[in-house]
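Consider this pair:
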Amino acid sequence: MLRVVFDTNVLISAIISDGRPRELLMKGISKEFAIVTSDLLLRELGTVLRRPKFKTDEDEIHRIILALMQVAEVVEVVSKFNLVKEDPKDDVVVETAYDGKANFIVSGDRHLLALNSFRGIKIVRVKQMFTCFEEKTS
């Protein structure tokens, strides 16, 4: 089964609006692939959801994170990479994917997307991830 790490920006899009990111998240929830995450990424998700523009209260944030923990494999991050010079905070996404033996990182972040791949882990946009599924089923 494919193993996929969602960057926080994709999760936020999936949570706040309908569209392809939500559709992709639902595929993971329905076990079409394994969602891989880490405490570090879940913490970042909570931090971002607390921004005033999202108008998310603590109960809702707690429910979202608990729901993700129930459907995802939460891996311990032990690796440390210094890959994304322009935005070192993005390294945690790659570290989660590497330690979680993921096949893909799905992101909208230009710094991560510029890497294309890392040690066999493909870094793709939501649309590209759907293309990968279509290729596997045809």
Notes: Residues 19 and 58 are 25 Å apart (CA to CA). The radius of gyration is 14 Å. The chain is about 50% helix and 15% strand. The helical segments are 8-16, 20-29, 39-49, 58-71, 91-99, 110-115, 126-137.
